[in-house]
Amino acid sequence: xxxxEIKKNDADDLPAKYRSSAQEMTLIIIRFTLVFSIIFFxxxxxxxxxxxxxxxxxxxxxxxxxVVPIIPIKDKYxxxxxxxxxxxxxxxxxxxxxxxxxxxxxxxxxxxxPRDLRVKTDEHGYQxxxxxxxxxxxxxxxxxxxxxxxxxxxxxxxxxxxxYYVKVDLSGFEKIVDLFGGVEIDVEKNMTYDDNKQNLHxxxxxxxxxxxxxxxxxxxxxxxxxxxxxxxxxxxxTFIKAMVAKxxxxxxxxxxxxxxxxxxxxxxxxxxxxxxxALIGAFPEPSKITVHSQTVPGxxxxxNKICYFKTVDxxxxxxxxxISSGEIIKIEAEKQKAELEKADKEAAGDKNxxxxxxxxxSRT
Length: 364
Prior knowledge:
14 strands; two-stranded antiparallel ribbon; Aminopeptidase; 12 helices; alpha+beta; globular; 2 domains; 54% helix
């Protein structure tokens, strides 16, 4: 055993309080490299379909994390995803999406907060929620203060704390989608719209296609149909689901570290890279992650000639509570069971009806 190995072993054996800062940093790097290597091996084997190797790799990764924990991972996280429109006169949060991540359930729940949601502010009375960020930024000239303000408002109306935020503007969104190599979407109809003020020109054809960043942005921004902003929010949720599905593909998993590091250049976030990597490694099997869309209860109405979205507060709190507690899984299972039973009864009724018609024909 050489001198370097003796020093390394000595550092491992020393209690943390007796280690030098250099020794502590060396151990952290060694541990991080070990777990990251296991995760990368998992991704590589995924490409070749060797699922049993993947399960083994994750099992080892979890064991290593228990012995030499790098970053503590919680069972549940709440992220706030903000999309800001930089092409108009005032910067607003054009998209506000709550992302609930449940590690044990391999589940992601999305709640799109309508940008026209009517909320009470401290200094400006009742406003649309997308103005909360704007007012705070104009007041403080601080992006962090503005994000914290809207995160606090979202927490107040939903009853849950936000763990981390991710903010991206329009150009950043395009670049991130292109890093993924585009995302496949089944565009439900032809979409055409022009707004010279926002430099927004939408030209999308109906049908399944891989959307580049430019056209993905058009898909996510389109709202000029009967459903208006509700349709836009649904398309945004559909797109996020498709992006998660793309991220679960073997070829994408191999490139995920590069994609993440590249995407970090185009977003503002308080997520630490080590936490992000550790969270990715905490999921036993990425292919089994499911993404679910939830709708804020409420409807649009005019107040003082201004169109607001008014939510039913107790129903929204109940929805968020069900997601946070995991009760939503039981509720959805019971709902699905009831729908299947109803379909079976209808099918049985049709069968009996057709059988009766056949008997009548045979008599004649």
